[in-house]
Every structure is written in C-alpha cells, then in structure tokens.
C-alpha cells in the first residue's frame, strides 16, 4: 500500500505530478539523517537491473537528503511501471502505460501465514478462526501495543492470537467453562496456542455468558464498529475508549 506521490503516462508527466504533490507531505520523508530505499516494479514487462538503476537516477529531481539503505530503510519508495496491454491491429491498448511513484505505508506480510496456519496449531476447535482472517480482524481493530483486545467468544483463542501478534494485550471469555479452563489438557489449550508462537499469554480468560455481558451498564466509552462473526473489544490504555466490533449473528 502506497501513498501516491505522482503518476503519469510517461516520465515527464510523472515528474510534473510528483513536483505538484504537496511539499509538506513529501519533506518529512526526505530529511537528512533518515534512510530510504527505492524499488522498481513492473507489470506486464520485465525491466533489467540496469534499466531499474536508470529509472532511479531519473528521480534525481526528488530532493532526497537521507542515506540509501537497502536492508532496513526508514522509508521505502516504489516506482511502478505498467506496460501498454492488449495492443491489437493498430487499435489502442486495453490498458495504457502508466507509471506511479509512491511511499510505502503498509504491506501484506504473507510470511506470517505459514507460521500461524491452523494446520500446525496445537489446540483447534471446529470453528477456530482462520489465521489470515484473524490478522485481518486484528488490523481492522487496530490491534497494537498498548491496547487490550477482548474476544467474548474466545473458543480456541485464534482471533486473540492474531491480535497478540501485533502486540496487543488480550483477554477472552467463553460460556463454556471447559474452553477457558481445560482445553484438551495441560499442553493443548488457549494458553498453549499463545506459547506455541512465543506470544504473551492472555491477561485473563473468563467464563462469561455474553447474553448477560459482564460489563457495567452504560459504559459510555464504548464505540461500535461492525465486524463479522464475533465480538472484539479494544480498551485503549490511557483513554479507556472501547471500540466494539460486533457480530452479525453468525
Ligand atoms: C464459533 S466459536 C469461536 C471460535 C473462536 N473464534 C476460535 O477461533 O476458536 C464460538 C464460541 O462462543 C462460545 N459461546 C457461544 N455462546 C456464548 C455466549 N452466550 N457467551 C459466551 N460465549 C459463547 C462457544 O462456547 C464457542 O466456544
């Protein structure tokens, strides 16, 4: 996912577009003392290593003042070039050549999936949440360090595992005492699912019926957002605000 700094159908248009992108949006990422990396991606054609270097040199009008760091840069940029696609008997292409330049603001970490996939999870139930879906939910809930994520239908804890991966503290509840207390034995339970990945364990697992939620009435700091399948509460440490991601009844 990129913050788009400019685009064009050729490099002249791209330059004009990048120059027109507001200075205050660019300059924080061009500062001396920072490090950066520019990668070149192409779609519909291959760009040789030498061509990639030439493309990068062609961006010299962007006043990067930081150092290049290819291994762990502070800021990552991408030049993405697509080829004309679908040229046919002199007719215009279906998709025209387009060049984009942007700053990376996020990316999918596909490497997480093999690590967390359910088939290698110790404690599984028939409705254990798929790892990829759990990560999506955790991201939607902005689960991160300093927040507390609560899943009132915790089951095997698979949603909380996703939230804990992103640094959130976790807490779960389930109506079934066997789920929160026993699992399938001492090394096969919600706790062991966290241990398996070296994640901090939930701060608590409660036995609770969420038809009778154990929260005080009129909890004013509750905000609500829709998310399918389960409830997730997030308590923000300092503000104690509580976005509630709630179920559609499945
Ligand atoms: C679909 S499973 C949750 C699966 C869980 N997300 C996981 O990854 O394993 C639903 C869980 O909600 C629990 N449950 C059902 N009704 C409940 C209620 N009224 N209050 C609390 N938990 C309830 C069930 O015991 C079950 O463990």
TrEMBL record:
Identification of the protein by name: Uncharacterized protein
Top-rank lineage group of the source organism: Eukaryota
